[in-house]
Amino acid sequence: MTGPRALALLLLPVLLGWAGGHPVPGTKSFRKLLLISFDGFRWDYDQDVDTPNMDRLAQEGVKAKYLTPPFVTMTSPSHFTTISGRWIEDHGVIHNMMFNTETQWKYSFKTTQNKTEWWDNGVLPLWITAQRQGRKTASFHYPGGGAKYQGEAVQRSLVESHTHPNGNETEWRQNIDIVMNWFTKEDFDFVTLYYGEPDSVGHLYGPDTENRRAMIQQIDRTIGYLLEAIGRHSLTEHLNVIITSDHGMTTMKKKPNITEILLRNYISFKDLVQFDIVDYGGFGMLLPKPGQEEAVYQALKNAHPHLNVYKKEEFPERFHFAKHERVLPIVMYADPGYSISGRIILYFNKGDHGFDNVYMDMKTIFRAFGPDFKKNHLAEPFDSIHIYPLMCKLLGVTPEPHNGSLAVTQEMLVDTYDQHTGAEMKRASALQNTAISLTVVTGVLVVLFVAGVTFTVFCRKKTQRADQNSTSEPVRMTEL
Ligand SMILES: [Zn+2]
């Protein structure tokens, strides 16, 4: 009976595959998801200013004590870790600036936003993965949303212009209205929305200033507007929201209080350095001229008590940063508050980031609310790398390989979540049960039918052979 059994077994997965997949095609089994990033929102920014809406969110949803961004604590690298679940050395977006050591060209953060070659390094962001699994996705100003990945663009993507103002509260509200319409009128499933504040104000005035506190109140009002807009668009039971950020901010130290880091004091750029990424806050990289790597390293490694210098291959593993080919041979980071200048000091920021992610000033926020999240739940701190599998779970998307773990965030979800959001999934379960029953019945019928045919043919052949007085071997069923 090998043949009929094989046939029946072949039929089973075909029929099961029709409805046994997850989710069932054509059914709306999962809720929509909005990911909002407020750039440079330090973990404790809501603690010295009134934030009634964020307080309300903490009661109506999930608040992590803080979130640890990846190193380097910089906008594009960190945002791409959030959207891909990969460490920076895996996804390859290692800096805000795109650069080319051959041509010596450097492109600013905003210029890179339309440069696919900076973002598309083989790691797929969630927009593309979700699209390939039938979800409708959009990016509103989110870093990396304007690039193509393996030739595929995000279905809808708005990229910040060079002159886009960061702090216009009226525009912030308009952007929320646009996104709400994407969800309700155009049935988008997953949208990422980015705001350039409070990063700008943190750089310009410093994190511990009245200007920053005023900006946090503006963000809080915007979150209040978001809550109201979600209700107005009848999305309360259909939309999960994650509010997070890419890094914190620390106050920069200046002369005469400290001795600033100026690399020219220790090395000759003209003689030793072919290409450099410095003058960009507390992080820097150098490509020494051929044969000069050791000389550069020796000259810098003990040059300044607040400058940490490594050869690329000796950079600490815990940063998950230096393995990518784009990382230059000498990697440096300063202690918090120190900037790394090259030939002259051209540095004006009063606040900055880019420092070791172990420091509390580099930690950022994680908030979440919506039908699939618990209420009034205070989560322990975690790494932003784990947001990706959580988003995949919420959207019902099978993740790409990633460095995160759903186990870290699973406790934030309501207990019934694993029953696949209750009533909505009952329909899918019923379909699956029907399919399985049909499969079993069909399988049995097929087996009976084939066995019947086999037996009939066997008897007929046996009769024929008996008639011919044949002595050849018996007929095997498998010949059928
Ligand atoms: Zn940033």
From TrEMBL:
Pfam families referenced in this protein's UniProt entry, alphabetically: Phosphodiest
Residues annotated as signal peptide: 1-21
- Give the source's domain of life in one word: Eukaryota
Gene3D superfamilies linked to this entry: 3.30.1360.180, Alkaline Phosphatase, subunit A
Any one GO MF annotation of this record: phosphoric diester hydrolase activity
Going by the UniProt record, its keywords in alphabetical order are: Membrane, Signal, Transmembrane, Transmembrane helix
Q: Any stretches that span the bilayer, and where are they? A: 435-458
Q: What is this protein called?
A: Ectonucleotide pyrophosphatase/phosphodiesterase family member 7-like
Q: Which organism is it from?
A: Bos taurus
Write the lineage as a comma-separated list: Eukaryota, Metazoa, Chordata, Craniata, Vertebrata
Q: Which gene specifies this protein's sequence?
A: LOC521021
